[in-house]
Amino acid sequence: MKKFFSMTAAIAIILSMTACGTASDPPADSPENTSAASEMETTSTGTAETEAVIEAEDGSLEGNILVAYFSWADNAVLADDVDAVASPSVIPPGNVQQLAGWVQEETGGDLFSIRVTDPYPSDWDECLDRANRERGDGARPELAENAADMEQYDTIFLGYPNWWYGVPMALLSFLEQNDLSGKQVYLFCSHGTGGLANSVELITDAVPDARIADNIVDGYEEEAASSQEDIQNWVRELGFSEDEREREMTEGRQISVRFGENQILCELNGGSAADSLYEQLPLTIEVEDYSTNEKIFYPPQPLDTGDSPLAQAGAGTLAYYEPWGDVVFFYGDYHENPSLFELGQVISGSEMISGMSGTITVEAAE
Fold first, then answer.
1. Angle, CA 185 vertex, CA 182 and CA 188 arms, to 5°
2. Is the pLDDT of residue 81 over 90?
3. pTM (two decimals)
4. What are the structural domains, with CATH classification, of the chain?
5. What does 18-57 look like in DSSP terms, one character per residue?
6. Do the beta carbons of residue 283 and residue 363 sit within 8 Å?
7. CA 232, CA 362: separation in Å to the nearest integer?
8. Of 38, 67, 72, 219, whose CB has the highest number of CB atoms within 10 Å?
9. Residue 241: is its pLDDT beyond 90?
């Protein structure tokens, strides 16, 4: 559980005890008790599994990611005289809304705001009263829409504020309308001095067959706006950083080039041109001689060079010459060219390049 702290633990405990059950413990991601805060830390709630990521049998990270969240800022109609100082997070972006946005940016997942058909008041006390009534009634507020095709997601990041030492009842509406069985769920929560309170238990009861991770972000509302780095580090620790996932996907990606009884292995880089070539495999195609130091072939579709390094190495380079649209195997030194992009390097069989002729088969290496 990650928290923002700048007060001593004793002061925080005293404040939370005096605020419990009173109107000073606000209902939403912004209208919670004010408390100074500075950093996030991690602990375990002991509620479920401790796996940081779901892995398929081949060891790769599984499936698509949904970042679903409930924020007061997305669920209130602002009055003309709303006090941005007294109720800062009813003004978009709200605390949970900001946290969810940073999780989405880091993971590359789909973002979904849980919104009710009957918005909450933008007045702090009125919102508090309604939230308390809904809690007492066990209400399930009607949602404006639902997430599309929940089956496509394997991992859910779920964000919410602490409302009356629990969760907004609309969050339970969302959970009960969607089957999260077997899905990995990561929680992040904004609060005043109430901490996670009973929120994890309520969520677990609503989706008993989901995998609720015990690595939870738990942040004070006042520090939400300055917690981007902490949120990013949390996502990276879990192994869901989009940049890291892309690096892992491209790391060690190899292709095989066969002609006759011969095989050449190349390792592709992470550039967009290499991605474009890889997506077109397998290819059975004619290779041609060009000059005295290269063999070339023309892929069916042009390669995207928008994010690709220029070719700068010598013999054994696999490259793409954009003006002509040909893939090049260099078996001798060559001159650098601003239109010549590196795809990767030959890692086995470079001595065979000069002998390539006729029809070759290019495919992903097993």
1. 170
2. no
3. 0.55
4. 9-247 (3.40.50.360), 252-364 (2.40.100.20)
5. HHTTSTTS-SSSSSS-----------B--SS---SS-B-T
6. yes
7. 39
8. 72
9. no
